[in-house]
Design goal:
This protein is mainly α and 337 residues long. It contains 14 helices and no strands.
Length: 337
Amino acid sequence: MPTPSTATAAGRRRAAWVLGALALAAVAAVLAALFIGSVRIDAARLPEMLDGTATGPDAAIVLELRLPRAVAAFATGGLLALAGTLMQVLMRNPLADPYVLGISGGAAVAALAAMLAGLAAWTGFAALGGALLSTVLVFGLARAGPGRAPWAATRLLLTGVVVAAGWGALIALLLTLAPDAAVRGMLFWLLGDLSAATAGAPALALLAATLAAAMLIARDLNVVTRGEDAALALGVAVPRVALVAHVLAATATAVAVAIAGSIGFVGLLAPHALRLVVGNDQRVLLPAATLAGGTLLVVADTLARSLVAPLQLPVGVITALVGVPVFLWLLARGGTR
């Protein structure tokens, strides 16, 4: 029978192997995204393209179009998965979704309003502002009223559902009032679109900063998963930890929506699947889910622009088509266990 120290060492080795495999998968997915598409690129030429020695149209396609898009896709997927992991801990529900607080609805309303106003170049900034406004609104309403515990999980969830329903009504109104020529672009954005994503480096830096901040409270999150009373008894400042985690999840979701629109299942599927592999230790699950979410969205975006090339599909359609059967399988597998 293994001793506790042996079991801990084995768990650390397994976590290292999983994180290493996920990192390699992420690199492989990004490299594959560089030479797969409507214009085929010779994979053997990728090294000279990436170090800047190659010139010509192929090098321009890789460096100016595909590389920024792949980096943005990885950052967006990582942000959604990180937000999903945090939300599932805070809600104590493995099926919680990053959009549970109505963040995507606020972003969608602001982005669609910008499109209708002829400010398409400001769509990303409008989406970010709308997402943050929705976050402030939900948190303010959830704390309103006498004798209310600040930001209780159930109250936040119910408030987010109601606010999301209101945003949904406004989205339907904007689509109804929009001219026919603009409706297709608006619907495409609502389904998830990375075709105009060029801010890969800033998004990647924000992902790294958000993950680093989340890792600072990972140990406390492990205690919170045992219940609020147990966490308080062990000396964890539950309100502070919950506030930090909520802010990180909301910010990550807001930035992801601003970059690529509403993309479902990444924030739900990645942490749920990795939890079955690495367990519920947030010190391992947070980086593992981030890597898995980024890889998943890079693969989905590569498929979205390659399956019916030169036409491009909304990446949200691919994540839903893949995510629904995979998630149902994971759910059934988890139930049998």
